């Protein structure tokens, strides 16, 4: 069950409660499901009960209990726990995670992308400042991944090295519109020239902070240590690729299946399409960058158990863990690509 399917399931539970007279509310258009926060449990959580409580004129926990009973009727949901002021925490059967991994491997780096043109046409405008140009270029990538047609305009002449070194493309392109209002891209400017960091580290340094934060243009982005978020993301990706090579040498391939103890990783992988859509519509590429760090941090603990040890023969569990690792690497590679950063197979 993907997050989109789970959202529909939550709305169906609301609709049933309304039809059966237990809730008197308007059924919302969408229900947000996310990985559980502090104090939560299970695979996903939703605040739908808090969202409906005022209109229903009932305490949020009472609304949550009404929905909990109906959610448990879905065989794909193994448990629903109410926590805090009324959050619903949902655990899914293993088949749901298997389907998610299968979808990621099938779609590859385009997992989370729109299937076609959404009908949205966006005009981006930035000034000829290196951070503004990189952010505009990345926003265009994100918006196009969600099916939008994007036109970029730069006020001034960009430095040619921004294209050759940083890989940006802010030439005027896309559909011409009349009377449209441009989206102005105006992040806090870079305090120093980032070109000395090279393409990948420079783009990360400019994109990882929120637009209103001052970026750090330092050599810290180049160090290969756990304290460097970019290193953790690229290292996690490279490790998944190395595991696939090693598994091939041992004569076995990835095969989606249930993996115990990987609920956090499955949840953040399932959340990837929502993050892409939110980063595109909110014009916040930093949100994608932070999400990739979360994916990497959830991936790394899995990797030590992927390959068989000693004389151990590859089993279905090894093949399932390898498939999950490959799915995580695929999400990391796709996200880095949208940020304009190379996902290298070797570090």
TrEMBL record:
Its EC number is 6.1.1.19. The keyword Secreted does not apply. It is an enzyme of class 6 (ligase). GO terms for cellular component: cytoplasm. Residues 4-92 form the Arginyl tRNA synthetase N-terminal domain. GO terms for biological process: arginyl-tRNA aminoacylation. Gene3D superfamilies: Arginyl tRNA synthetase N-terminal domain, Isoleucyl-tRNA Synthetase, Domain 1. It holds the Pfam family DALR_1. Transmembrane segments: none annotated. InterPro entries: Arg-tRNA-ligase, Arg-tRNA-synth_N, Arg-tRNA-synth_N_sf, DALR_anticod-bd, tRNAsynth_Ia_anticodon-bd. GO terms for molecular function: arginine-tRNA ligase activity; ATP binding. Residues 233-347 form the DALR anticodon binding domain. Keywords: Aminoacyl-tRNA synthetase, ATP-binding, Ligase, Nucleotide-binding. It catalyses: tRNA(Arg) + L-arginine + ATP = L-arginyl-tRNA(Arg) + AMP + diphosphate. SUPFAM superfamilies: Anticodon-binding domain of a subclass of class I aminoacyl-tRNA synthetases, Arginyl-tRNA synthetase (ArgRS), N-terminal 'additional' domain. PANTHER family: ARGININE--TRNA LIGASE, CYTOPLASMIC (PTHR11956:SF5), ARGINYL-TRNA SYNTHETASE (PTHR11956). This is arginine--tRNA ligase. It comes from Streptomyces violarus.
């Amino acid at each position: 069950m993907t997050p989109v399917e789970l959202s529909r399931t939550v709305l169906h539970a609301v609709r049933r409660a309304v039809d059966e007279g237990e809730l008197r509310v308007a059924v919302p258009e969408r229900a947000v499901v996310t990985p559980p926060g502090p104090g939560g449990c299970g695979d996903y959580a939703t605040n739908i009960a808090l969202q409906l409580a005022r209109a229903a004129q009932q305490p949020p926990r009472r609304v949550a209990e009404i929905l909990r009973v109906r959610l448990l009727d879905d065989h794909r949901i193994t448990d629903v726990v109410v926590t805090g002021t009324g959050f619903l925490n949902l655990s899914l059967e293993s088949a749901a995670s298997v389907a998610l991994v299968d979808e990621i491997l099938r779609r590859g780096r385009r997992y989370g992308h729109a299937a076609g043109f959404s009908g949205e046409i966006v005009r981006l405008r930035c000034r000829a400042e290196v951070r503004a140009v990189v952010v505009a270029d990345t926003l265009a990538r994100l918006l196009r991944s969600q099916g939008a047609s994007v036109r970029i305009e730069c006020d001034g002449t960009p430095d040619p090295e921004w294209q050759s070194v940083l890989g940006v493309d802010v030439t005027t392109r896309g559909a011409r519109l009349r009377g449209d209002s441009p989206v102005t891209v105006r992040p806090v400017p870079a305090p120093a020239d980032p070109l000395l960091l090279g393409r990948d580290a420079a783009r990360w340094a400019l994109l990882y902070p929120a637009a209103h934060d001052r970026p750090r243009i330092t050599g810290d982005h180049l160090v290969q240590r756990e304290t460097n978020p970019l290193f953790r993301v690229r290292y996690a990706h490279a490790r998944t690729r190395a595991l696939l090579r090693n598994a091939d040498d041992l004569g076995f391939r990835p095969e989606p299946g249930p993996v115990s103890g990987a609920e956090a990783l499955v949840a953040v992988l399932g959340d990837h399409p929502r993050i892409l859509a939110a980063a595109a519509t909110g014009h916040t590429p930093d949100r994608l960058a932070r999400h990739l760090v979360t994916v990497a941090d959830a991936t790394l603990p899995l990797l030590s158990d992927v390959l068989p040890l000693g004389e151990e023969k590859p089993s279905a569990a090894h093949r399932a863990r390898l498939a999950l690792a490959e799915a995580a690497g695929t999400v990391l590679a796709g996200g880095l690509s949208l940020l304009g950063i190379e996902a290298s197979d070797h570090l």
